[in-house]
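Q: What would this complex look like in 3D?
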Amino acid sequence: MLIAGQWVDAADGETSATHDPCCGETIASVPTATEADVERAVVAANAALVDPEWARMDGSARGRMLNKMAQVTYASAKQLATVESQNNGKTFREALGEINFAAWTLEYFAGWADKIEGETVPVPGARLNYTLRQPLGATVHIVPWNFPLQLAIRSIAPALAAGCSVIAKPASLTPLSLLAWCEALEQAEAMPPAAALQVVTGPGGRIGAQLAGHTDIDGIVLTGGVPTGQLVMAAAAANLTPVTLELGGKGANIVFADADIGRAAKAICYGIWMNAGQMCWAGSRLIVHSDVHADLLAAIETEIDTWPLGPGLSRGVRIGSMVSKEHRSSVLETLEKGLAEGGTLVRGGGCPGGELEAGAFMEPTIVNDVDPSSVLFTEELFGPVLAVTAFNDEKEAVRLANDTEFGLLNGIWTNHLGRAHQVAAALQCGMVNINEYPVTFPMTAFTGWKRSGIGVEQSRHALSFYSRVKNITVNLR
Ligand code: NAD
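A: Here is my prediction, written as structure tokens for the whole assembly.
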């Protein structure tokens, strides 16, 4: 772990093994932080806030530092993607794309570091009134296993740009890429000074909970499941600590009869089978006009035939392993429950044997004619399962897409300009993609409505979480 600027083991020497899910082999053992280790990290994070090396580093210097971090990330991308692929099971190609996206996020926020401006406010009388935007303070970043390094950097970058100190906690299943990234930063002398960036490892229920409920933490960012979000928010409430929560999703691709079916089919495959479907923004529901229902399904089946399943580091593989056999079992269980409720399994639904048997692989799966009451329509399976439901008119399509407790990303496929924008406005979610899926950029907000979360990641909007307003009145007489 990286605590107070030092690479350390847990105080009691305890470790836990981390695995390659493609074969089940142990690839590393990682410290399990003790309560005392976490406490030391919190003390160091608060010390960084008053350490002149960090506290007096001006915005331009922080921007240069973030740009250097970005360059190191680009330069180490292949090595980091190898680590990520091995620890998570995803394909090397996917991992490489994510690491480059993370580097781009660092560059984006590097540009903001010297533009976090206050304002002057006209007030009555002979007075000057102005605001400062100051760093929120010591922030905790709790990261899931599905995009381990990219999602860590997604929130670390704006926090450092705003002058906060950072304690990051990776998911217990996938701690390696974040540690490898910090090692690369250190080797390139691109590590933020004064221990402004620390990493503690260990189980979320203990380490994460201790950090989330800590009185000396000023902000908590969690990317994870809804139940974890509720626990973190409850722990934070005890200290009135602000939270950003990026939680689950049940995205729908709505395909109208006038859509480009070929393009839609390719993107729908990408939206549900990339990362073996383990994505908050997966397009796990397909809501398709009945006139093009059969054609679109046929096009999706043709496309998915060209997606080989296999170990993430093997050439040509398009779908890697899931993160663990335990997680795969939970997906298979929900699939079984869903199929018992109705719908027709048109493809997949099983686990490949032969050479892939030792890994946590699952076939790309399509269930047709899924009723909106089915768990396949309502629950986030977090696996490679596409639920298909037909509609007959626009109103019904919008009603179906909104008929979920989640509100992260939805897609619209149509060549009718007015309809595209009207449906986008009517969808109850934080993000909409039109005629592509799924797409986001460092400069666009990543945000969920309803049970998909609270707050915004990426874009300038993220910065308002990491900086706080101070208003100052000066009597000029
Ligand atoms: P998870 O909620 O199990 O774990 C997320 C993180 O929280 C891990 O680091 C874990 O160790 C930690 N944690 C667990 N219990 C905790 C507790 N009591 N207190 C504090 N921390 C705790 O999620 P996961 O299984 O790693 O990831 C899958 C979930 O993440 C899915 O629901 C997915 O939709 C969501 N997700 C959301 C986004 C987004 O941007 N909206 C992105 C990726 C994943």
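A: To summarize the key features: Residues 92-112 form the longest helix (21 residues). The first strand starts at residue 2 and ends at 3.
Q: Very helpful, thank you.
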